[in-house]
Structures are given as C-alpha cells and as structure tokens.
Write a structure and sequence with these properties.
7-stranded mixed sheet; 7 strands
C-alpha cells in the first residue's frame, strides 16, 4: 500500500521531470546485425566463436543443444551496444555455452519501448514456433516507466506469461525484472524515486504471477554501476550486458538452489497478500 500511495502522491514530479527527460535523452536504436546466432554448433567445436546460424540446429544431430529465445523490450534488442554480439542475448548464449559445453542457438526478439501487452499481442503470436528449450523474458521497465497500474500489469503481464507457457510448455522460462531505478544515471533523483515506488508495486506482483504460472522470476541485478550503462544513461552498455548475462545464466540453466531460494523469497514476501494494495483479482 505504501509504495502505491507514494507513487501516486508523487505523480506531479513524474509528469514534470518525465517531460524534461524525454526532451533531452538520446533516442538510441538497436545495433546492426542478425538477431540470431550460435555457439559451439560445429562438431567437436568447444571455443566461443559466435557464428550466425539457424536456431533450428538441424545440422547438429545433438539432442543436447540449448535453443535460447531472449524476448522483451530494448534490453532483448541490444539497445545501448554498438554490435549485436555485445548485447544481452548473444552474451547470455555465450555464457551458457561456456558453462555447459553444449551447443547454443540463440534468437533475440526485442523491441524498443515494448510493454507487456505489446509482447503478448503482437510479438509472441508472430514468432515462428521454434523448439526453444530456454526463454528469457525481459519486460517490465516500460510498464514502470509508463506508470502502469497493478491491475493493468496483472492483466497484460499475466496474460503474456500464459501465452508463453501455452506456446512453449516444455521450455524453461525466466523473467528478468527491471533494474533498480534509483541507480539509473539518466533519471533525476525525484523521477527515480517515483519510478522506484512504482517498480516495487509491479515487481512484487510480477514475482507472484510468475510463480503461479510456471515461470521463474530472477532477482534484480545486485550491483549496478555507471560503467554498466550506455551513453544515454538508461540502457545497458556492453559491460552491463555481459554482467547481466552472468547474473542470469544460473537462473536460465537452473543452477542448484536457484529455484528453491527464489520461491522462498517470492512467496515469503507475497503469499496471501495483494501487492501494495493495488492488485485486483
């Protein structure tokens, strides 16, 4: 209740300072290059040289291949880096290959400014039904930034989770929540505070929805530094994408203890209560 109330009380700050930010912030675009590739897909290959190949993996004959889909907003698109190979999707695929020694085929389906409803209604229905084994979902930042309420987020983000689970029932799906808004350099202190409260409302609800609908919520990045941001002060830099990939790899692979610790953290905080007094049934 407190975070929801504070975010609404600070709405004038959000409007005024948000307009100023929109006027001055650089509008970055996704990096050039194919939004798909592979690591270790040649017979006997064990280095981490990226090659651009089909996620079908028909030439492998290897049932142990990881087929990774990174789906979401500008984070999934790689906005903030110069080359697609420096983006989150490619870096995560590389990390999974290094950790497992298995071939990894990856696809990035990321879109600037996309909110959960955009992914649910326009992106997922238009993706080719590849046999993805692992899916990383990066959404929520634009829902927070656009000041979406909890009821709307439950409907749109919750519907997206249903859509993903129905389309890929056997895939391991992980949600990467937004970064700590208080650490984003582009945001003024006042605007960061407003979005911080709004993020807490949606993040609590998002974790609960994930656990209810068969999705694993990752934790927020534990350490966010200036070097992790691109020149606009909002999107991840190449260093930031590499750091995020390292943080998320364990959740995507299902490292020992990851599931149980996340479930305890989420249910212990959220069970039996509606997040911040805003979520409806």
């Amino acid at each position: 209740m407190r975070d929801a109330a504070l975010s609404w009380l600070l709405l004038p700050v959000y409007v005024w300072q948000g307009i100023g930010l929109r006027r001055r912030i650089e509008r970055m675009i996704p990096p050039a290059g194919p939004a798909h590739g592979a690591f270790g897909h040649c017979a006997g290959q064990r280095d981490v040289t990226a090659t651009h190949g089909s996620p079908d993996g028909d030439d492998l004959g290897d049932g142990g291949a990881i087929r990774l889909l990174v789906l979401g907003d500008s984070s999934a698109a790689g906005v903030g880096v110069e080359r697609i190979e420096e983006g989150l999707a490619c870096r995560l695929a590389e990390r999974l290959h290094v950790l497992t020694g298995r071939p990894v085929f990856w696809r990035a389906a990321g879109f600037n400014s996309a909110v959960s409803a955009d992914l649910r209604d326009h992106v997922v229905p238009n993706l080719v039904r590849e046999p993805y084994t692992h899916i990383l979902l990066t959404t929520g930042t634009n829902d927070v930034k656009n000041f979406h309420g909890a009821r709307r987020f439950k409907r749109e983000f919750g519907g997206l989770l249903y859509t993903l689970r129905a389309r890929w029932p056997d895939a391991r799906i992980v949600w990467s929540p937004p970064v700590d808004m208080l650490r984003v350099p582009a945001l003024s202190p006042g605007l960061a505070k407003v979005l911080h409260h709004r993020d807490r409302v949606l993040a609590r609800l998002g974790r609960r929805l994930c656990l209810e609908r068969g999705i694993l919520p990752a934790t927020t990045l534990p350490r966010v530094e200036q070097a992790g941001f691109a020149r606009d002060g909002f999107h991840a830099s190449a260093d930031g994408a590499a750091y995020a990939a390292g943080h998320l790899a364990g959740y995507v692979l299902g490292a020992a203890g990851t599931n149980s610790s996340l479930i305890r953290a989420a249910t212990g905080r959220d069970a039996g209560a509606k997040p911040s007094g805003e979520a409806g049934s």
